[in-house]
Amino acid sequence: MEIMRAVSCKKYGSPEVLQIIHCNKPQPKEDEILIKIYATSVTNSDIFIRSSKIPLMVMIPMRLMIGIRGPRKSIIGEVFSGEIEYAGPQTKRFKVGDQVYGLTGFSLGAYADYKCMKETDSKQGCLAVKPKNISFEEATSAAYGGLLAFQQLEKVNLTSKNKVLIYGASSTSGTMAVQYAKYLGAEVTGVCSSLNIEFVKSLGADEVLDYTKEESIKDLREYDLVLDAVGKYRTSKLKVACMNRLTKNGKYVSIDDGALLLESDRLNRITELIEMNAIKPVTDRTYEFEQIIEAHKYVEMGHKRGNVAITVNTKT
Are residues 154 and 106 in the same domain? Predict the structure, then answer.
């Protein structure tokens, strides 16, 4: 058996519970593809899975699903980009050499040199051909942030007549949401910290509010859509006020609303917009595979701008 590197998480806890191990390279079945992973990312979902730092009412069902004392699937990570090294005889969508990106869903396993996946969408993941004009590291931001942002924004048929507020506009999903909402023609207000105001403006936001300043509340208007891009467990007075500033038929949606839909059709749409240069994924920092603990520590601080990527292998 060939050996590969992977990041193992056998118990819940601080970033130090993560260990780089050597294990058997997975063997694809006839209806699977084998992906050599070039990049992954550290998402908030990865932080939750590793640390289990979530409210008790959510922790209990989560642990029943993922694992009581630690993740049942010890190789964690759910976002990847890479190249297909093998395509089983029963596969049809992809061929050896295709560069792909996507999410692994409940199967996890993206923190590794290789990952086997089926090419059909399911709770075990989805994948699509990677945009040609971005790096493997940028593709991980596009996959995770794009799927989250697009799923929520598409709950409303946005046009140039709509006003949208994106709370957490500098997050991985928020940066994609600002750009996508502008592409659709909406008037966009972004909410972030004072450090990121100019950055969010550069993404196309028409107005930017500072969530750390109470006086920002008086600058709120009425919005057809308010998107919470940081999740329900992080709040502020401004965020609470946003919920009461909806138009008659306005909607308030959160990235926590319902399960993330793992759909390759949506990934294909993200690919198309990126290759049109209508949207550009944002990467804050890139760490080496051996720096996975440092990457988790940085993301857990809550100050990242866009995505934090991990280079797993280098394309030669």
Answer: no
Asked if 312 contacts 37 with a C-beta cutoff of 8 angstroms, the reply is: yes
Amino acid at 248: K
CATH code where residue 198 lies: 3.40.50.720
Residue 159: CA atoms inside 13 Å, Cβ hemisphere, count? Answer: 2
Cβ atoms of 267 and 147 closer than 8 Å: yes
Rg over alpha carbons for the chain, rounded to the nearest Å, is 19
* Nearest CA-CA partner of 29 in 165, 129, 120: 120
Q: How many domains does the chain have?
A: 2
63 and 174 in a single domain? The answer is: no
Whole-structure pTM value: 0.93
The tens place of each residue's pLDDT in the chain, 316 residues long, gives 799 999 999 999 999 999 999 999 999 999 999 999 999 999 998 998 998 776 655 555 666 666 667 788 899 999 999 999 999 999 999 999 999 999 999 999 999 999 999 999 999 999 999 999 999 999 999 999 999 999 999 988 888 889 999 999 999 999 999 999 999 999 999 999 999 999 999 999 999 999 988 889 899 999 999 999 998 878 889 999 998 999 999 999 999 888 899 999 999 999 999 999 999 999 999 999 999 999 999 999 988 999 999 999 998 7
Structural domain for 19, as ranges = 3-130+282-311
How does 222-234 read in b/e, with b if 16+ C-beta sit within 10 Å? ebbbbbbbbbeee
